[in-house]
């Protein structure tokens, strides 16, 4: 084989190798661009998740602080009903049961019922729900006593 033929074969091999390298470069470049966009998208996703986590945590803290403020309002010393523990427990239980029944329509029913020291239309509405219909004379007497007690409290 002559040197000229050998040079031609070497040039052909070099050309083939160069084409292979260019193809590999193009594939590598395409992969790097895609992986960069993948890592960029991953970064955006992670930042979004961190932001969402912070928002959920903030919302939970806000709800907890609202609940503590509502409970402070209910248990404030300006409400005379707190002096009578059994009456307060009864009125509070009425609001709890009413909240269980109406929470889908009025999510703050418990707080609304307790507001203004139980002197509001929501509490009266809840009280009417638990008023017995068919009563014996003893039940009527107890109900009249309860109504008079609540009426005197609500007027005061």
TrEMBL record:
Gene3D superfamilies: Crustacean CHH/MIH/GIH neurohormone
InterPro entries: Crust_neurhormone_CS, Crust_neurohorm, Crust_neurohorm_sf
Annotated PROSITE patterns: CHH_MIH_GIH
GO CC field: extracellular region
Gene Ontology molecular function, alphabetical: neuropeptide hormone activity
Entry keyword annotation includes Transmembrane helix: yes
Entry coiled-coil feature ranges: none
Disulfide bonds: 79-117, 95-113, 98-126
Parts of the chain that traverse the membrane: 38-56
A GO BP entry: circadian rhythm
UniProt keyword terms in alphabetical order: Disulfide bond, Membrane, Transmembrane, Transmembrane helix
Family: Belongs to the arthropod CHH/MIH/GIH/VIH hormone family.
PANTHER family given in the database record: ION TRANSPORT PEPTIDE, ISOFORM C (PTHR35981)
The protein's name: Uncharacterized protein
Species in which this protein is naturally found: Meloidogyne enterolobii
């Amino acid at each position: 084989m002559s040197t000229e033929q050998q040079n031609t074969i070497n040039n052909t091999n070099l050309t083939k190798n160069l084409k292979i390298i260019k193809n590999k470069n193009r594939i590598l470049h395409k992969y790097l661009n895609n992986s960069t966009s993948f890592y960029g998208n991953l970064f955006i996703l992670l930042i979004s998740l961190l932001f969402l986590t912070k928002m959920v945590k903030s919302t939970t803290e806000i709800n907890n602080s609202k609940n503590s403020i509502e409970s402070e309002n209910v248990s404030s010393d300006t409400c005379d009903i707190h002096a009578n523990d059994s009456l307060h427990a009864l009125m509070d239980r009425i609001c709890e049961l009413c909240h269980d029944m109406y929470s889908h329509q009025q999510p703050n029913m418990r707080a609304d019922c307790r507001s203004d020291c139980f002197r509001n239309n929501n509490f009266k509405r809840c009280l009417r729900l638990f008023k017995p219909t068919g009563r014996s004379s003893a039940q009527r007497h107890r109900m009249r006593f309860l109504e008079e007690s609540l009426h005197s409290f609500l007027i005061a």
